[in-house]
Amino acid sequence: MLAWLLLALCLALTHFVALTQGLCTKDAPEGYKVRLSIVTALGPDAYQWNESEMFLFRATLAFAMRRHFDVETYDIDNILVCAETPRVSFWFVVTDPLNASQLISGEQVELAVRNSRNRINSAFLLTDKTLEFLGIPPTLAVPVEPATRPWLIVFGVVIGLVTAGILIILVSTLTKRIRNKKEVLEEETLENVYETEFPEAKSGTPNGGFIEDERNTQL
Questions:
Q1: What is the pLDDT of residue 14?
Q2: β-pairing, 79-85 with 131-134?
Q3: How far is residue 205's CA from residue 58's CA, in Å, rounded to a whole number?
Q4: How confident is the model at residue 212 (pLDDT cuts 50, 70, 90)?
Q5: Which of 52, 133, 149, 210 is the 20 to 30 A CA-CA neighbour of 143?
């Protein structure tokens, strides 16, 4: 009885493997080709691609599918890989967790990859240029929004210039008034000094010297 049970399990497993291998083929309609340039990206620190790295790739793709659909039913068994080459390129497809013979559409796989592209890249220390999903355009990084908005900066500069102009005008006007007041005070001081030294100029007292000269001139 046990032998028959083991035989049935082996036949089921063989049938499942044959079925899944037929789903993942080169140029599969719902599949994508992946190409990694590990040596180009990391140079002497490049790691060797092996079964463990492939396991990590399948795990990150399962994570991307879980995140995209917001479900926890995807596993590494749903990520099928085929047509692998020594230069680290391969094809992959994603099967439906509820039906292993049904593939997830390429559009959904693309969305899942794009949404988790940074997480996938960081898992392998690579970038969009060295971890390529052929047929899936790189995801542009979200632009960093400055803490201060540009219009607020421009507004601040304009207000600063206007304020500086007003201050310059006020200081210039005040300086001019002080200068004019100082000139008036200097003129009044000179007049007072002149009146002090020559009091007859202010009182109208005739100068004797000038009168005597006039008399001599008449004679």
A1: 39
A2: unpaired
A3: 121
A4: low
A5: 133
pLDDT in tens, 35-78: 999 999 999 999 999 999 999 999 999 999 999 999 999 999 99
Gap between the Cα atoms of 138 and 150, Å rounded:
28
pLDDT attached to residue 18? 39
Say how far apart CA 152 and CA 155 lie, in whole Å: 5
Q: Residue 3: what are its φ and ψ, rounded to 5°?
A: -65, -40
CB-based contact 78:95 (threshold 8 Å): yes
Q: Give CA–CA dist 83/33, Å, rounded.
A: 9
CA 85, chain centre distance (Å)? 37
Cβ atoms of residues 195 and 188 within 8 Å:
no
According to the 3-state scheme, what is the secondary structure of the chain? CHHHHHHHHHHHHHHHHHHHHHHCCCCCCCCEEEEECHHHHHHHHCCCCCHHHHHHHHHHHHHHHHHHHCCCCCCHHHEEEEEEECCCEEEEEEEECCEEEEECCHHHHHHHHHHCHHHHHHHCCCCCCCEEEECCCCCCCCCCCCCCCHHHHHHHHHHHHHHHHHHHHHHHHHHHHHHHHHHHHHHHHHHHHHHHHCHHHHHCCCCHHHHHHHHHHHC
Task: Give the burial class of 41: count Cβ atoms within 10 A of its Cβ; 0-12 exposed, 13-18 middle, 19 or more buried.
Answer: middle
**Integer Cα distance of 191 and 208 in angstroms:** 23
